[in-house]
Amino acid sequence: MAATQYIEEGEVFQLTDRPDNINELLLVRIGEITLKGLNRGRFVARLIGNIKRRIKDLGEFSIVQSHSRIWIHALSGEPSMKEVAKRLSTVFGIVSISPALEFDPDWETLVQVVEDYATVVLLGKGKRTFKLETKRVNKSFPLSSYEVSSELGAKLLTRFPEQLSVKMIEPDITIHVEIRDKIYVYHETIPGHAGLPVGMSGRGMLLLSGGIDSPVAGYMMASRGMILEAIYFHTFPYTSQQALDKVEKLAQILTRYAGRIAFHTVDFTDIQLELNDKVPEDMLTVVMRRIMMRIAEELARERNAKAIITGESLGQVASQTAEALMATDVVVGLPVFRPLIGLDKNDTIALARKIGTFETSILPYDDCCTVFVSKHPKTHPSLADADKAEARLDMDALIETSREKISTKLIDLSFEFEESH
Amino acid sequence: MLGECGNNPSSTHAGGLRALAQVNEAKRIISRCLDCSPDDIIFTSGGTESINLALLGSSLAVNRRPKRALTTSGEHDAVIETMKVLRDMYGFEIDFVEITDDGVVDIEVLKEALHEAPCGLASFLVVSNETGAINDVQYLTTIIRQRAPQAIIHGDIVQVCGKMPFSFKRSGLDLASLSGHKFGAPKGTGVLLKRKGISISPIIHGGGQQKNIRSGTENVPGVYALALALESHVLRLAEHMEHVTSLRDLFIHRIEMLRIPHVVISPEGASPYVLSIAFPGIRGETLLNALSAEDIYISTGSACGSKRAGDNHVLLAMGLDKETILSAVRISFAPQQSSEDIEYLARRIADIYGRYAIHRGR
Fold first, then answer.
1. In terms of domains, do B22 and B92 share one?
2. What is the ipTM of this complex?
3. CB 3.0 to 4.6 Å from B40: which of A75, B36, B202, B232, for a disulfide?
């Protein structure tokens, strides 16, 4: 076999001048979905659909499920498998991804491939330790898995005696060899975000503000398979165009995980002014939250969403005490999902950093919550307090007029933003 | 004209010599406008670079001067942040002299500060970018010179050039920083004026251009544009001043007529080119957003940064309360505006105020 050249790109490496008998592919592990019993077919079909949408602009692919895995081959267009793997790492339902080489079961080819492979991933970095891990599913292959590992290990040590040594526990690199109908060789496992494929759990209406919490709440519900729609209450000119742009950017970052998001903006200024006029100052925030919930519910029902999602965390601010949450919940009939309810702020921040929304969330544009905040809000409002505070409002008319103040924009999946940390 | 600007003024070929001639011509024009010698002029990328070069460059050039610098609490961030670098990286002690409620240097506090310990560097704003408050530059330099003869004195004249008469020779300043875009030259152009005999270490290193004070090929078209823009303003200084003053006065008059609650923050006798004014009941940011949607641009605080509402160190230093600072805006008046423009602005503010002002305390 002609010398095969490998080019390393970061941790994922690629093959150039690849001989016809060796294919590149991605092994995608799908974890939780495989436990889904009779529904498994639907989950897998949805996941494959989501994968296709995520990488369709990178080329043509064959995407096949078998043996608790999804196997992805490029059919045309010579796509960068690194780019493909990177994109897939944010698709919910995927536990991990390994870029691998595939070829017909043949000992000579296997030796050649592993030697070349080692040249790329092991050499030129000082003395490295490695081990081989072989799994033989195809029992017609003449050598046992133990024999394959030890023979290949011996070949590598003979060829690179100065640079390599074997280490069974925590080596620098583990080269995996899987012998099935074909042989697969890989060394790297890129973690995914796990969870369930988006689309398996219906649709959720996310109350998205410019803060740190709500994008994380959206991410968490999307990770349980919800399609996200977002609703933002815009209070121009009290809040700026930049504040709106920032929220839209947060929604755009979320598309990386959740796919396309319908983004609804409510022109909330007149309602806010009316509240300011007719609601006691210490109840302003609670009443404002109740109205936002009502508007979100109306829209959710119209859009066939099954739940409202918020980023509230118990006790974080005055409007997030148990009493205040009860006072807001009582006005809506849909379930309200609050995935951050028991999280510490630091945990939420860590998640925001992980998913790449933190840097945008901390940009200094006020949202309406900070402009119309009262100095001494009631922290433990009773339901009677809340009803009384709304007494001077014509609620039906208010909610009715709000429907004409909603504009909707589809935010498509986009990768035009910085890497997450 | 621009054709020659493509050549490098340090080159010795004919094109380079013509570019050099153009730089020299720009220096002659600027020297006439600001009453300085052409040799005093160092071209930079703007006010911020000039200030950095002045404060850092003069401090690093001479070691024997006291490592104590005086400035004021009303300065632009370019001075404040550069002073912090002198403090944190070069061991300087920095004293921020208070400003009065009128936004000018508090002379008594300055005298005390000069009396307390020897001082090697002083820097102050001649006209405040925030309020238009004017410091008497000759008076200040005299006071400083008498009490700290060894100190280098730097003036931030960004809001002065092209707007008011200014003589570098008579100012008593050793160094002065200005920015081209404030009088219509392209952004990215500026000048540091340096009195003869003052040593400056470069902060940008390279080919040794501009007497090895500021390396990098001169921005020939920018330099020339700066000179022409400055000249065109200086030639009409009195006329512009009269017109802009009338615009500012008209605006305040209109605001009063329209009964918009307001507090004029700019002091009596301030530069008419900038007006600091608060409209209690509406946040400055709300007014800015609403006007911006109609393509009318005003500022809150300093337009350079994206700070949080209420963070305005100058207004704080003038002793204003947080509510007033939150409702403060900065309106710039310019010679090309008409009285109709100003009437329109006042009416728009009245409408926006009527619609969006919030009065609490029911």
1. yes
2. 0.79
3. B36
